[in-house]
Amino acid sequence: MTPDSRRTRSDAPDAPQPLPLSAAPRTKTMTHARTLAVALSALALAAPVSAQTTPPQEYMDLAREIFSELIEINTTNSERGNNTLAARALARHLLDAGFPEEDVHVLVPADAPTKGNLVARYRGRDTGQRPILLLAHIDVVEALPQDWSPDIDPFTFMERDGFYYGRGVTDDKDEAAIHVANFIRMKREGFVPDRDIIVAATADEEGGPRNGVRFLLEEHRELVDAEYALNEGGGGMEKDGRKISNNVQAAEKKFQSFTFRATNPGGHSSLPVRKNAIYDLSAALLAVQNHDFPVMFNEVTEAFFTGSADLVGGEMGEAMRRIVANPADREADRILAREPGYYSRLRTTCVATLLSGGHAGNALPQLAEATVNCRIFPSHDPEEVRAALQELADPHDVQVIPQGQARPSPPSPLVDEVMEPIRRITEQMWPGVRVLPVMSTGATDGLYFRREGIPVYGVSGLFGDMDDVRAHGQDERIRVQNFYEGQEFLYRLVKALSGGGIAE
């Protein structure tokens, strides 16, 4: 998960931070901590859940069976974890349901036998349209039993007081179980889509050594090539039991770290001088702390702030309207900066994350270094960011050195083909709940597909309490009702996107 969305990658800040914000997963991002309080006016706009928002009982039972099995397979990036077992379990459900063996693949890197991935294809009519890809990762972050409540084991699926508990119930085994269960449902119902539909359940999204999406794109591109993908990163926001917004992650920032390096001849600590590598580095880092990159917009963030203004209301909502109308409005920027989730969606951000310096307790430091991590706005040139940082560091004789290279991740276009079915089905299931496009401040596996020219939309219909985000944390849980509503939402959405229409 997105900080944006219900979750975001392990290298991400938090999962969306949002308004009814995104991102966020859900959102991972991790991030998945939300900092904003939604105005009372927003709650007034939200409507109660309508009837018939869950699947027929047999398909709820099926999804629960698959979900439970997935949760109880340890897929952490550890000696105990095995993603391949989880991929094979999903494959077995599809094969038992009658999917042909040639359409169900468990793909395992030769150098990583526990990092298997499932790719399964639901065949449609030959209309010339490229497939739709349904993406979910089945690896999870580490969870130690001693870190959870005494009566909750992270790798034992448990239902209590209207919630499912277990590592991965929100990030991201819920979506993997739902996609497989919905494949089986559509097959049993005899649905024939107007294009192929692909499910990919992948490894190491959470930062392991053998990322499944990258592996599939590099070695099995033909199996996952698609017109666009549906992924995590978005999801629904709830507050006090009321559904506020159903978010669609359509963009994410670029990742780039820099080393700040200060050097000095050093000497004995009994003879201090003004020129000190630690002091120089500290001064440069303070300059970074006090620097604001310019406000920037793209189609996704403009839609987010425009759509959020009425939901948030008050001074903050008015500031959103003003900043969209005039990105140079400093007062509006100052107001929005009170919320990190808004501030970070308006610009590139850079922050010091690691620090080292000196070589002896009685010696002047000869070397001091820090890592500054930047989350770069999609349209912002990373070289411009490096140059700005170097300009901040120059007065203090500090060198700025890139760590690796930022890779492009262009925003996905907000096309009616995708967005309109999302809006209509959201209104059907939860009248009055708004659909908001969001940009994650962290990262998901969607970035790999976006780099390859395949748009990605983080959308799930899986709602979570913005004040109780537990992805990557203790006692991870999802409300039972929300799980099955997400199952029904994704079933309706995938059918609508593949020629099945939208039932009235």
Cα-atom radius of gyration: 23 Å
Helix content: 25-40%
Shape: globular
Number of domains: 2
Q: Strands of the largest sheet, in order across it?
A: 1-2-6-3-7-17
Q: Treating each run of at least 4 consecutive H or I residues as one helix, how many helices?
A: 15
**The CATH C-level class name of the largest domain:** Alpha Beta
CATH topology of the largest domain: Aminopeptidase
Strand content: 15-25%
Q: What ranges have pLDDT less than 50 throughout 5 or more consecutive residues? A: 1-50
Structural class: alpha/beta
The CATH superfamily of the largest domain is known as Zn peptidases
Question: What's the mean pLDDT score?
Answer: 91
Count all strands and give the number: 19
CATH architecture of the largest domain: 3-Layer(aba) Sandwich
Tell me the span between the first and last alpha carbons: 32 Å
The major β-sheet equals: 6 strands, mixed
